């Protein structure tokens, strides 16, 4: 039976992944990667390692909720030992994104900046509204808990990419990441992606389309982090059935 490995096992989401996988009869836990110590008991037979190579040798699919440097190491090691990868970490550099692309030429890789079904659908809606309501100004706001280290969120950037795509634009050409002082009037194409941080907000994303006399806001709120852990486990079960290497999305997994 296929077994799963976790990168980021001591983290907020990693901990929930362990809770779910120790009970999972379809995709049991094979190994977890740790930097230091894992301060919880695991069923006997589950390997705890600080070596990415050993992790890959002891599982058939990896779920990664960690940090960009950890995902980089995972991809580098996976290129030597191809294994399906479900990657959920955010905040990558361009080099790290390219490395994930390289890895996807050798093994199935599913990358999603958000593992929820709601955001999977929201991306499509955002592209459609952006294309349809051409004269509306687009602004994106994301809200997360006080511990989040990357900004803006990976999800907000993904939503921005879909919004830009609806207008035939590249987000990198039109993104505004702050406004302060005498900045002048808003330009037609710009898309601001702004971040709020506080408390224990699991994740909230609002994509607004604003015009004279009316505005439309599409909003998604994650109320439990289990949305992400369960979404990633669903993705891992789907990914191990994919025979061809490639970069898959959560929408491929959900068939939407
Ligand atoms: N795609 C999605 O649906 C979601 C994505 N995320 C993303 O997942 C990531 C993790 O989120 P969260 O669980 O909240 O974060 P945490 O900070 O709670 O956990 C991070 C984990 O990564 C580990 N880690 C950090 N640096 C390294 C490294 N260099 N090598 C190996 N392991 C490392 C940490 O280990 P240690 O404890 O030893 O530091 C810890 O286990 C973030 O990028 C976040 O944005 C989060 C939620 C949903
Ligand atoms: O760090 C988090 O918590 C989250 N990160 C992801 C992101 O950056 O988009 C997904 C989710 O919003 C929670």
Structural notes for this entry:
The protein has two domains: 4-111 and 225-254, NAD(P)-binding Rossmann-like Domain (Rossmann fold, 3-Layer(aba) Sandwich), CATH 3.40.50.720; 117-222, Dihydrodipicolinate Reductase, domain 2, CATH 3.30.360.10. Helices cover 36% and strands 24% of the residues. The chain has nine helices and twelve strands. The strands form two sheets. A seven-stranded parallel beta sheet has the order 3-2-1-4-5-6-12, sandwiched between helices. Strand 10 (203-211) and strand 11 form a beta hairpin. Helix 1 crosses helix 8 (226-239) and helix 5 (117-132) runs parallel beside helix 6 (154-166). It is elongated, with a radius of gyration of 19 Å. The two termini are 28 Å apart. The mean pLDDT is 98. Bound molecules: NADPH dihydro-nicotinamide-adenine-dinucleotide phosphate (NDP) and the ligand O=C(O)C1=N[C@H](C(=O)O)C[C@H](O)C1. NADPH dihydro-nicotinamide-adenine-dinucleotide phosphate binds next to helix 1 and helix 3.
């Amino acid at each position: 039976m296929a077994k799963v490995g976790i990168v980021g096992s001591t983290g907020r989401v990693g901990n929930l992944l362990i809770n779910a996988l120790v009970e999972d009869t379809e995709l049991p836990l094979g190994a977890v990667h740790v930097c230091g110590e894992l301060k919880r008991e695991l069923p006997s037979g589950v390997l705890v390692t600080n070596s990415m190579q050993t992790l890959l040798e002891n599982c058939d699919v990896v779920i990664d909720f960690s940090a960009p440097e950890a995902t980089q190491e995972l991809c580098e090691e996976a290129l030597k030992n191809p294994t399906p990868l479900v990657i959920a970490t955010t905040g990558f550099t361009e080099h790290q994104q390219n490395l994930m692309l390289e890895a996807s030429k050798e093994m199935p890789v599913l990358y999603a900046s958000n593992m929820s079904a709601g955001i999977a659908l929201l991306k499509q809606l955002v592209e459609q509204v952006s294309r349809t309501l051409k004269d509306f100004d687009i602004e994106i706001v994301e809200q997360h808990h006080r511990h989040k280290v990357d900004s803006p969120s990976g999800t907000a950037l993904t939503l921005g990419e879909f919004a830009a795509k609806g207008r035939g634009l590249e987000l990198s050409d039109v993104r505004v990441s702050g406004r302060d002082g005498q900045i002048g009037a808003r330009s037609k194409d710009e898309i601001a992606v702004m971040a709020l941080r506080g408390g224990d907000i699991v994740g909230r994303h609002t994509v607004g389309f604003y015009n004279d006399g009316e505005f439309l806001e599409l909003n998604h709120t994650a109320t439990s982090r289990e949305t992400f852990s369960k979404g990633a486990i669903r993705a891992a079960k789907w990914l191990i059935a994919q025979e061809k290497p490639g970069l898959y999305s959560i929408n491929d997994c959900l068939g939407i």
